[in-house]
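<context>
A single protein, sequence plus fold
<sample>
Here is the protein in question:
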Amino acid sequence: MPSYNPPLRDMQFVMHEVLNVSDALKQIPRHADTDADTINAVLEEGGKFAAEVLFPLNISGDQEGCTLNPQTREVTTPKGFKEAYAQYIEGGWAALSCDPEFGGQGLPFVLNQCFYEMLNSANQAWTMYPGLSHGAYECLQAHGTDEQKKQLLPKLVSGEWLGTMCLTEPHCGTDLGLLRTKAEPQADGTYKINGTKIFISSGDNDFTDNIIHLVLARLPDAPKGSKGISLFAVSKYKLKADGSLGEHNGIYCGGLEHKMGIHGNATCQMILDNAMGTLVGQPHKGLQAMFVMMNAARLGVGNQSLGLTEVAYQNALAYAKDRLQMRSLSGTKAKDKEADPIIVHPDVRKMLLTAKAYAEGGRALACYCALLLDQHLYHPDEKVRQDSDELLALLTPIIKAFLTDNGFQATVMCQQVFGGHGYIKEWGMEQFVRDARINMIYEGTNTVQSLDLLGRKVLGNNGATLKKFGKIVGALIEEEGVNEKMSEFISPLAVLAEQMTKFTMEIGFKGMQNPDEVGAAAVDYLRVAGHLVFGYFFARMASVALKKIAAGDTDPFYQAKLQTARFYFAKLFPETATLMRTARAGSKSLMDTHLALA
């Protein structure tokens, strides 16, 4: 059976020693009192909930899955899921980073980020229920009417109700401009909504009495395409004037998807049959409002793979230390045993270190982005808010795509460490692989994220935001460039930072002549950008570790961090050379293939 130990030490290292989160939060009045002790105490308790309550339900929830009663149209989640949610609510976890105005605790998002990483390690399928609800809260807080906020947000913040987003339809996934769900205005200011949505995560469940669905639909006068989409709040049960629940609304689960993974989450086909809804935001501006939730979900999906990478690594490491197979190529290591543990073999170490590096690099990036979100929302300096927003927009597709690509690679490698046992259910590794696979697909496939990064976030403003991040990287290079002990980290980072400018300009110039060049290069480009970001954070982490060691700190944690950073720059970072070469190969070998694909 697998196990899970919350990585509290590494979280504390990233937040307190690398990012200096407490100092940054002191500049934000609403978070000025959130010190390191508060952060550590909350994460310690959150880790207990993840490891002791959620993790034991992961395998059983996967095996049992969800069931739909065709008569009542109600969904039942796996045994123990509902009770775990009750404990989650009782502990006040749903309200952790929500606004006190609506009953939240008002703690920073960077703290919520680490808490959710642990939840995802413990049980991704379960975590999707409250995770999506938090996104619905953020969307309504930003774009809801005063009445919607007053009526809906306290229930979402407390966890008494859950929330979902209903976008995809059978004939359209990413291309929402094709959606056909209709919304008819009514005399009382509400709307009757009709249509079918598919792949709706957490679309129905038995956790709460009510669910608030955020639904994209078209008004009768809507222009064609994505500019004609409006957003509506649709309650599972109609709401009375006093806010209590009335009769069942015309929205229900028509079927459950049979999936490769995340079996414990109800992925629903949702039917809207004259469902009553209220408009969120402006008519025909629904995508702008929904992007608040979609961007939150993209950060959340990256966090899902970060969680799976961590838990897969922990279990593979424990197995590699215990499993005896063959002798070391360089001579017997365990003389008292009939064979050496497999951790002595170079390629086993490569697989373990790949997962470890992707977890630690991903954690640094995810915490940094969460801090950017805190600064964007609440920092008193407008320039800091704007800069944080721009950087977060640039890094969001990298969080979503790079972390989920890495997460799938890492879980597969960790499964490989187990050999044949990794293919067997009882060890839990094959579930991590299956669960990780969806993260590369939903909330915008990773190709869509790559197009968003290169086409919109980089070329869309002539590289202005990329240059802004480049200045941050350049400042570290200038600061540490004279430090001989840092040269093994700074030198490759400096080379890639210089190459990135020329590489970007080259792809942009070719794209102006032929847009397919952007499409052909985008996926490779995102991975190069991802390594630039990871390289920056590993250099920062190495710098902190070296300073601690120089000051006489004997904690082996810092030596381990240096060893992981050295592995990353030696074995993973050089992938950028191949990626730039394949990106520069252009679109001809892809598009001039009519006979090959006939």
